[in-house]
Request: fold
Amino acid sequence: MYDVIIVGAGICGTSLARELSKYRLSVCCLERENDVADGTTKANSGIVHAGYDPLPGTQMAKLNVVGNAMVEQLCKDLDVPYRKNGSLVLAFDDDEMKTIQTLYERGVANGVPDLSILSGEEVAKLEPNLNPVKGALYAKSAGVVSPWELAIAQMEVAVQNGVELYLEREVNGITWNGESFAVTAAHNGETESYEARYLVNAAGVDADTIESFINEPPYHTKPNKGQYYLLDKSQGNLVHTVVFQCPSKLGKGVLVSPTAHGNLIVGPDSVDQPDKDDVSVTADRLAFIRNAAARSCSKINYRDSIRNFAGIRAQSEQDEFLIHYSPVTNQMVHLANIKSPGLTSSPAIALEVVEMLQKAGLVLEEKDSYQTTRRFPRFRELSEEEKKRIIEKDPRYGRIICRCESITEGEIVAAVHSPVPATTVDAVKRRCNAGMGRCQGGFCSPRVVEIIARELHRAPESICKDKAGSYILIGKTTKGEEKA
Ligand SMILES: Cc1cc2nc3c(=O)[nH]c(=O)nc-3n(C[C@H](O)[C@H](O)[C@H](O)COP(=O)(O)OP(=O)(O)OC[C@H]3O[C@@H](n4cnc5c(N)ncnc54)[C@H](O)[C@@H]3O)c2cc1C
Reply:
């Protein structure tokens, strides 16, 4: 019997796992996919929003501002790429200047620090590559983060502090007997059972399905897709801040921003769709994004685009995070409608949930020994002296596997043997950037497959690109004896 089961290992589940691992509790996390951060958390803008967008008095506003203030230290502690580069909301005419004024006042009411309204000239000085504007809202506290690395790092810390992570476990039933929960999960065609006194539903866009196992959800999920362009680092300096347009009914609009890794990201759009899993990208929506972004900046060179991708927003008819106890028992907390700014808010959401669980009777005793930090070796960031030393200790750091990003065999091996081991090509990519560059793994993927297979003593044919079943190799084209 666990004290707490968390369903879902996105940014909310992993933030909560890290927070709960500070206490003397037995905690497990059940995740459907073969890696953490494989849902919406890996496919979003990666912006640490300042907090002027949500309406004052909402939980969204409070958690956004608190979360924003927590992310910087968290990224330092966990060695996660983060840049506090500030954000601009551009106004192109007098009407939009009124929206800027409203957002400024909302930000002040929400407690957002370092907000100001800039003139068109000031914007041009800050961002010379933008098209001329009337003015902008400048929020210095905004930033960019690597969302999947933040989630992975938090789960690594949680695991090192005793949390048990079970991947490829799809929760398909929950019952409550008045004291505890019995949870069933599908794993490799079998059904496994888990028990816990407290349960947290952090299943993202599928939170309604998990909630429906125990009570009728008080909302209707309307999945909403956002598509993107990711451009090469050659475009990464086109703008320095996160550049938004004025928000509309459809959301925060199309942004242009450097990413935490130094690429340029352009998007997203916003389209409702019935399917929670359809992350396809389409030519018409990408054309829409290019046209919309051209209003902010007409200098983006899409010939340097290296990838398109899409993420699914967990949306409903309510414009608010729906963090609530189950009407059946306070021992279950649902995290529903965690749309943007869910990534920014996630550390604060975790604190909120811990407080809710405590109010529901969970006893929190701090551990004497809690490991707060975590480090990942990044060869390209080391000094010449440090590089020499690490290669002397482990020659695998002297072999570059991903040429675009300068990622060494040592880093890939470290990812495969990390506290949340990478077992797929994309899991390696998410941990050490191999395959994130201009060629998107064209050159290094076969070597990465070889290294994963070697390190895990598995057949190369069994290594997937990403989700279960995404096999890369199906057999040999030439048998050994057929070679000339
Ligand atoms: C296009 C887009 C742009 C965004 N931009 C930003 C931004 O710039 N800044 C920001 O702050 N926020 C942003 N967001 C919002 C942010 O990405 C989300 O709020 C956040 O990632 C949600 O995290 P989560 O943990 O709730 O969900 P997820 O990351 O989806 O995690 C849920 C997990 O639950 C698992 N799961 C589901 N069902 C089951 C089951 N039955 N059993 C076991 N596991 C299950 C899933 O596999 C998944 O791993 C954006 C969202 C989108 C879609």
